[in-house]
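Duplicate of #3305? Posting structure anyway:
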């Protein structure tokens, strides 16, 4: 079976659309952080060095809208407690991201 390479230069290409959604460094780092399991906003902010509170909130909202992250309210009354977890779709990114890590480790000395 031949490998089919999509035309990622075309705006309508689904691979291009996926790359545009996942290419953000914050998204990738948050996916890595959430692979360990559900976490609260403050925990994610501590784990992902350099991310601002505003960027974390915006990125989590966008990832939720894309179906990668699920927001769970643990306590309704103030102060509200919320945690974030990868959805089943979000968890499917573990293998492709592991492949990128393997590639980076293999080619780190170049």
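Output from current build:
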């Amino acid at each position: 079976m031949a490998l089919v390479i999509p035309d990622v230069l075309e705006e309508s290409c689904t691979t291009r659309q996926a790359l545009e959604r996942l290419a953000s460094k914050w998204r990738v780092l948050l996916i890595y952080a959430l692979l360990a399991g559900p976490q609260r906003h403050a925990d994610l902010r501590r784990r992902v060095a350099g991310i601002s509170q505003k960027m974390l909130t915006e990125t989590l909202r966008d990832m939720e809208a894309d179906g990668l992250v699920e927001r769970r309210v643990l306590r309704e009354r103030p102060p509200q407690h919320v945690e974030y977890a990868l959805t089943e779709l979000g968890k499917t990114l573990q293998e492709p991201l592991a492949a990128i890590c393997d590639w980076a480790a293999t080619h780190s000395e170049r």
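Confirmed duplicate; merging threads. The chain is about 50% helix and 15% strand. The longest helix spans residues 53-65.
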